[in-house]
Design the sequence.
């Protein structure tokens, strides 16, 4: 994961306006806004999130912000632009790095930082990211968080209040296809149907687990080495090597088979 502080070159105080996170393997952007964000200081596209009290900008709108700051792919001479900058193909992240996010519409720019340089309020959000999620059916999710809490989230009311989610009330199979967002930023069904981690954490009901919950988890989230190899695009021998080096941690290992958490295998693609 690459991290950048978003700053305003024209401001007297060079404080961080927001932070851009980039997950290289998945090519996904997320923007984190400070708790005390001022909508008049926040870059225009992001100020609407401040007005709504949202602190994490989802991947769709984060990418939109990035796209406003780079050469568009349909530019007439895009091939020459890429060639002159040593790029073999159009890559949003590489183009963003060329100017560190500077563009004509404002005075914002990006400053590369390390994770430990993020303020405590942002690092604290990482502790409440989604660790895993399974469908319990009937518009209800069981969500596991990094701080160890497990919450049962009945989303039927959420779906009824938002037209784009209404299909999930009618289509149980689609609802069951829920996935964890890259980096644990929430859960999603497609690019336009996502729920951020902090809302799930805030509104979910903390409950003790029962056997049926564990059975549902095992059926959906425990995989063998062949499935792990397919996810990572490698051989089973490579999976066994990752296990030997302590990069993957089996939940059960016998002479004939090895079982792994699907979430841990998925996260190998985020590094």
Sequence:
């Amino acid at each position: 994961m690459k991290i950048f502080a978003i700053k305003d070159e024209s401001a007297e105080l060079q404080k961080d306006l927001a932070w851009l996170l980039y997950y290289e393997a998945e090519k996904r952007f997320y923007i984190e806004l400070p708790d005390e964000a001022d909508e008049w200081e926040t870059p225009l596209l992001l100020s609407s999130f401040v007005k709504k009290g949202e602190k994490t900008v989802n991947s769709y709108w984060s990418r939109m912000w990035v796209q406003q700051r780079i050469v568009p792919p349909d530019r007439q001479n895009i091939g020459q632009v890429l060639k002159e900058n040593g790029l073999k193909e159009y890559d949003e992240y590489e183009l963003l790095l060329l100017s560190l996010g500077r563009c004509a519409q404002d005075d914002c720019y990006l400053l590369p930082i390390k994770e430990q340089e993020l303020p405590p309020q942002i690092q604290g959000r990482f502790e409440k990211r989604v660790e895993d999620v399974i469908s319990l059916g009937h518009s209800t999710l069981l969500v596991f968080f990094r701080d160890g809490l497990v919450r049962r989230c009945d989303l039927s009311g959420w779906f009824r209040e938002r037209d784009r989610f209404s299909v999930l009330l009618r289509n149980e199979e689609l609802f069951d296809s829920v996935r964890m967002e890259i980096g644990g930023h929430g859960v999603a069904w497609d690019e336009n149907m996502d729920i951020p981690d902090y809302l799930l954490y805030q509104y979910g009901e903390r409950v003790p687990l029962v056997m049926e919950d564990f059975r549902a988890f095992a059926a959906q989230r425990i995989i063998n080495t062949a499935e792990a190899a397919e996810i990572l695009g490698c051989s089973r021998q490579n999976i066994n090597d990752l296990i030997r080096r302590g990069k993957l941690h089996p939940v059960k290992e016998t002479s004939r088979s090895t079982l792994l958490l699907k979430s841990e295998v998925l996260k190998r693609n985020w590094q």
